[in-house]
Amino acid sequence: MNTIAAIAAIRSTFFDSSRLDKMRFKVNPIFSITLLYLSQTFFLWMFFSSEGLEVMAMKGWISGLSTHDAALIAMKFASDWRHGMTSGWLLYMPGFFASAIATWLCSETRPLRRVITEITAVTLLAALTASLLAPAGSLLVIESFHRETGFSCRSESAGQSVIGTFRGLLTLVFWSSLVICGQRGLIRRSLNPLVIPAGLGLLLAGVRPVTVDDLTVLWIHRVIAGDVVAIISLTLMPCTATLLIWRQRRIESEFQRLRLPKPSL
């Protein structure tokens, strides 16, 4: 009975909104969920939109020096576009930056079960929204591809494929799990939570043809060449991570000040 009473006391303390409201640096829940929805929609929109060009390449709907060359160039361009690495983007990996910040903010004061429930619901809604917006995005990708390469393709988009949609969702799930588990590992001072994103990363590597190595090499080459966007994007990575870690430390201090239990793993 004492154990049950203690658990009940901890739960009531954690979910006592009056005490949580006293926490400094706490983000408004409605704002954090809205930010998560917008960032995940943007993330998936970039993946779903670029999928149309990949489908057209596989169907041979692109003409260039040769069908084979055109298809390979189109696949590479689609990968670069969804990662913000073609001309016109002001930041590399914009969807990754945005969703990482939003996911971190949503997870910092919530128990893990609630985090998973909320993020799953938001991800499904974001996927639906991104699918509806993808046709317009595909036209942007095709126009950009034609402008930068000179290759021609059918004016209409080929749409999304099931495997392409799965890859986009899996990438988002992997990235979200990496952020959440990294945050929980920071709280608990343990690397054990990172086992989950590591497993998802292996699965993702098996289903996505373009690897992290390809993007990293391209990024490094552009930094060496003095590309401003590449340099700024690379600089923002440690800056963003440092800011989020600093914020998490401040949140932990608030938990101690208010005598609240840490968020569960």
Describe, in short, the structure shown:
With 265 residues, this protein is an all-alpha fold. Helices cover 75% and strands 2% of the residues.
Features:
single chain, 265 residues, mainly alpha, two-stranded antiparallel sheet, 2 strands
Helical content (DSSP H or I, runs of 4+): over 70%
**Spatial strand order of the main sheet:** 1-2
N/C terminus separation? 24 Å
Task: Provide the β-strand percentage band.
Answer: under 5%
| Total tally of structural domains | 1
The succession of helices and strands, N to C, reads HHHEHHHEHHHH
Compute the average pLDDT: 83
The biggest sheet amounts to:
2 strands, antiparallel
Helix/strand-derived category reads mainly alpha
Instruction: Flag low-confidence runs.
Output: 1-18
Q: Rough shape?
A: elongated
Rg to the nearest angstrom? 21 Å
For the secondary structure, the number of strands is 2
| Number of H- or I-type helical stretches | 10
How would you characterize this protein structure?
With 265 residues, this protein is mainly α. The protein has ten helices and two strands. It has one domain (26-257). The chain has helices at 2-14, 17-20, 29-58, 67-82, 94-107, 112-149, 162-188, 195-207, 212-224, 228-257; strands at residues 62-63, 152-153. It has a two-stranded antiparallel sheet. The longest helix has 38 residues, at 112-149. It starts with a helix and ends in an 8-residue tail after the last helix.
